[in-house]
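Sequence in, structure out.
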Amino acid sequence: MAGTRPESVEIVEVGPRDGLQNDKQLLPASAKAELIRRLAAAGLRRIEATSFVHPKRVPQMADAEEVLRLIGRLPGVSLSGLVLNERGFDRALATDTLDEVTFAAVASETFSQRNQGAGVEENLETWRVISRRAREAGLFRSVTIVTAFGCPFEGEVPVARAVDLARAVAEIGTDELSRADTIGVATPPDVEARFGAVAEALPGLRLRAHFHNTRNTGYANADAALRAGVAVLDSSLGGIGGCPFAPEATGNIATEDLVYMLGRSRVATGVSFEALRETTLWLEGEMNRRLPAQTAHVGLFPPGPAARTS
């Protein structure tokens, strides 16, 4: 049975990485750096800035080092980068800018091969090396279990399989475990059951959730995750995003829509809705199109200063 919502929640902004990685338009590094600065100014304290992957596979992230060079250190903000192998980790470490690394452990064998070019077990051995090196470097370690709710190639992912993978990741070592609804198939009962199973198997482990709104259940799932004990939620400014290796994958839940929902639910985030809204409108100008987020175009209710920061 779901519990009560917490008084506050931490939001990780994934727009600069997960939001842009699947977009047909290539933003220049200067625009990406400006986006990250604006997100930090809005009150977001954890931002996934980029990923260190092969530029031919994900050309949108080919400028990872340049983006981080342009940003530099942002006081009070923890920047993270996605790494999938040791080469990517070496690149991330060489920037001397990141505070966190994120790794993807995949719950389905087929998606693991297509997304990372390695099987589930081989992927875990890669994490074993990266986890040790990240700990030695003083970096916060976050692992995302991809396709934790469903796989585009294998269908339903058994709860037990995802729990076993979570246990294996925790035994190797991580500071935080995220579960991702990569293709947007989850519903609130799925969220409650699967996060509940992980919390029971790994009590005390910091849990994070990553939802896509492909089937319009992302915000309901975020609320269910909070009531299931999740401490951290991912979201993407404007609702942009998707996975290049997941057919029909669409955007993440939008940061401004999430902040609005949480604010009306009396859950504090410390993030300014107005600053998010202004940044989305700016990003729409950079991308020459309207983005999926709803509240950026309608504003808060009720209006007024008291409602502007959740």
